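ok trying again, last paste got cut off:
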Amino acid sequence: MRALTWHGKRDVRVETVPDPVLKDPTDVIVRVTSTGVCGSDLHLYEVLGPYLDPGDILGHEPMGIIEEVGREVTALSAGDRVVVPFNVSCGNCFMCDRGLHSQCETTQVKERGTGAALFGFSKLYGQVPGGQAEFLRVPFGNTLPIKVPEGPADDRFVFLSDVLPTAWQAVEYAEIPPGGTVTILGLGPIGAMAARMALHRGASLVVGVDLVPERLSRAHADGVKALDLRRYGKDLGDKIRDLTDGRGTDAVIDAVGMEAHGAPLAKAAQWGVGLLPDAVAEKLMDRAGIDRLNALYAAIDIVRRGGTVSVVGVYGGAIDPMPLLTMFDKQIQLRMGQANVKHWVDDLLPLLTDQDPLGVDAFATHHMTLEEGPKAYQMFQDKEDGMIKTLLKP
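nice, full thing came through this time. structure:
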């Protein structure tokens, strides 16, 4: 089969690799019909290379058609249409029973001390072959795939793999009070969808912050108070307090993560580590890794006293300094973590109706072939051609 594989920093290629096969009696094989390119993929493309090996298959946002099922699979049959969550979760353990599928005890990567395995991510999360490929082996066939109806195009459902549950959890964790206010830092796919969800759920004011003109224009069209970081810079907090009676918003969602704009020293450190041999770089990142924290620091500044910061952008630093004095003094609540995809499916499926209240049908800005995957990564990293969300078609 053809698959998009990692070969080094900013070096991904589409290659011919062996087809996946059933390994366990509850496995299924999915023929991928659509697969997304995620901001988290760019962390692998740019920063987290020491945790990857050449030839690793990337991607964690696929959907498709069941081609083959293991002998113990009873919930699905060949020909069924499914979305594959990015968490590899069993659905039956202590953590899954509590809705914490990203902490699944069956697939926790215990040798790394991390949570549930993820499709197409890195050694940190199990090095499971990903979904930017023609076919994908999916374990836990009775409990993991999300069966969806025939009819609407893939765009209606594919975002159940990551974007929709991640954005929903970000809003849920933000605990925006009825008619309350929220600032969303970063208007990429997750931030843009979180903004739509916050408005749908009744927020009176959603402030969105970014520096990419196309993202700002799109958010403004959605009803978001879009603020250009290039204009406000260090005065961003003051501007948002001016909009909220001097307090700041009830909640802030950090949808940026480890590669925030405006942190030149941390950026230089990340770049320098990327030049080291993988074995050395991996140990250094495990023990002394740092993130670009400008977005998180901004969230702590912007949120009102007693408010909540919801962190959905990926961070990976081991020694990141945090302003605990300010956080304690402001009585901030802080929630974060990988999305528990399966936990939110029942909340999300009713929104994927003919009315399409979240605008998923037109959410992707680009559709490209799998063979164009390397170009899609480069365009997304460099923010070219108004690219906000891309779906690849194997």
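cool. Residues 54 and 153 are 34 Å apart (CA to CA). Residues 163-174 form the longest helix (12 residues).
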